[in-house]
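Let's study my pick:
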Amino acid sequence: MKMFVIIYSDAADEDVIAALKEAGVHGYTKTVEVRGEGTDTEPKLGTHCWPGKNNMLMMAVYERTREIGIRQSVGATPNDIRLQFLAEALMLSLVGGLIGIAAGVGGAILFGATSDMRTVIVPGSIVLAFASAARSSSVAKVIL
């Protein structure tokens, strides 16, 4: 389950609610008169919150299909949705890789401290392993 937040101009309230109902969304929490600040007429700080009076909807989404429908109903293009999935996959891969590196280095240090063998951690091998895994992962995604 994911929490989904939409911030939009109060002037578009009826259209947004109608689009959500058309997408099959019936439960949400609405906060009115959310205020945004900016120096010009475009969203600031990546929040997409316009200066002036805004409304905010929060909802729990159980399926990716419904999430995609909601995003499309409020104006997301197919490219926006692809970029979202790409960003999520990239973040998961990077975090997983960093956890793997930490576990490997920690294991090597622990092994060296508890055994008679001397362990050496070579930073170049970590970079090579990380790059190799990233490359094979991207090739597998293209094939599949």
